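Record pair follows.
FIRST:
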Amino acid sequence: MSERYPWHAPSWQRLQQSRQRRHHALLLKGKAGTGKLDFAVTLAQSLLCHKPVADGYACGQCASCGWFEQNSHPDYRLLTPEQETPDENTSSKKPARKSTQISVAQVRELGGFLELSSHQNEGLRVVVIHPADALNQTSANALLKMLEEPPPGVMFILVTSHPQRLLATIISRCQQVEMPAPSTEQALSWLAQQQLADAEQWLAYTGGSPLQAREAASAGGMQALPTRLAQGQKLDPFQAASEFAALGMEEVMTALQKWIYDLLAVRLEVQPRYHLRQQVALQALGKSVDLSALLTFQRQVDDARRSATHPLNHELQLETLMLQYSKLFPG
């Protein structure tokens, strides 16, 4: 069963009040790392449940809930980016990488599903699309046709943290639901229930997203990255690049962007935003860093982040970046 989060309670109540006059397509939008997908899946299960309880949640006991919990409900589909498989003609031992897009083939496969009748009397079919901004131009246009002429008894639930990336015509076909982010107090209270150590530090590091804070704290390798970067001129670029490459290019570039942001902040005598525990180290580095060179390096990191999903030699790229980073701090 998907998790429920206290900061979603008002949104859930509003949707339950309009349950009898529901729209054929919802667009759940809000900050990343706040549980929007869990909310969408919980809503889908409740809509398919035979006997939802008083607050609108699924009963968890009926045959429909049983199918749902076993990921075999015939009236439910979840569209997410496909898993890419390695090229069989290469000797690469690298694991399959997850695509960043929802393909047009995936959307077109919905056609057969939408043509079927519900497996339940007077039932509903539900499609959850996450993240909706992973639709490319072709797959978005294919979905738009379905939204323009929705089959009876079908509900679409689109989930996104980047609504600006969606086609305006798709947005116009949906009822938009603003999903609230938790207050700092709510997030810290929830993280305390998860028994997360240094919750305040991780919440700051993830920009106030409690689910991302929990995930980041469990990714042990990422915790070593600020320690390495705090070495400044003494950093071994080649050893650091080797360690960082194993963590994943996208994750490392995002972490490096946050470190540079905070280094710029302390250089300009502003409080760091993401690295609360490394404030002393950042201030020490900020005293010697060349501001002009740091701004240039920031642009290089931003460029590297945009190309992080490309099949480049990431370790070589990281070696170059780490070598440039160590040179930001004159002896």
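SECOND:
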Amino acid sequence: MKQLHRRVVVTGLGILSPIGNTVNEAWSSCTQGLSGITNVDVGISNSPVRIGAQLKNFNTSDHLDPKEVRRIDPFIQYGLIAANQSISDSGILEYESLNKEKVGINFGAGIGGIQTIENNKMILESKGHKKVSPFFVPGSIVNMISGLVSIKHGFMGPNTSVVTACSTGNHCIGTAARSIACGEADVMIAGGAEMASTPLSISGFISARALSTNPDPESACRPWDKDRDGFILADGAGSLVLEDYEHAKQRNAHIYAEIIGFGMSSDAYHMTAPHPEGIGVIAVMKNCLENAGLKPEDVDHINTHGTSTPLGDVAELKAISEVFGNHAKKININSTKSMTGHLLGAAGAIEAISVILAMERGVVPPTINHSTRDENIDPELNLTLNKAQKRDVKVGMSNTFGFGGHNACVVFKRLD
């Protein structure tokens, strides 16, 4: 796999998450080990799941036109707000020489507008087809975040939307970076959004035995702990502004980090279960290192997929040990999902932001709620448990894996 031709850097960040509605707020919570998981009303009678990770102290109408809010699903609302944050943070609109024909968007979701689908299905059954909203389709489809960001700002570059379940965020970031690297765009807004905390969605995950049934919000999400029993469904969005390095330098932009590698692979194994030997995960990390021109010992920090599921956690850590050898014990490994819950299609973008800030600020956030390590996990791995650790992170990696066997890995480097 060839390395990127043009250098790609990150110049803007935006986030909505259960632990904060701005980048600084979320980062503060993250480094303090504060959880966004709480008791929630899932809208299902006798549900075995009673906790979740939703946005707090947040009203979309404070950020978007109330008329627009009524027309689009919450996941689109979240994506637009996070994208606007990242665009504002980048200062790209203030650059007088900006060529909007070379600014694009790649923003996705794992599930999309399920709340809008559920609501309109009930309207159809109770009131008939004439009462179904004319905005039902455009207000629920996954690609509409990219479409509306383009329309709002007049960005006429590549306009796409990757959908790969829980690896969506990383796939959007990586493929957007490639659009810049090959010269299709100078700037790309990339990320993911999700709002799947609906009765139908939760019921589906319950039936698949994917969600934790632990009733205690303080201990339910515990990656790598022997008592973990599933993931916690979460809502939110993350957005990054990616930019050609020379373009960013020319306008004196603040550069958070450089994207130096992107890898993809497939488990080719099962619809929902990871390969027990982690062969797809091994492949994606090797692909990413090769694309970046790195040796395993160059990596300082990995934010894992780490969902708190019995099979997935062990398979990923075994893969890390396989790829990084003895150096795996020197890497700060963590899972910020222990605090945020699992944001599905938004996870990769939010976790990429965590990796970038760990490099910029010299702190690796903790993996909280850990009590007893699973006996199948190497006891010498540094899992950054329960308390943040100071670390001079020069190179950081973010892993994401999705139903269907989709794997994506992005590696970032600090510019000194």
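COMMENT: The CA atoms of residues 119 and 330 lie 49 Å apart.
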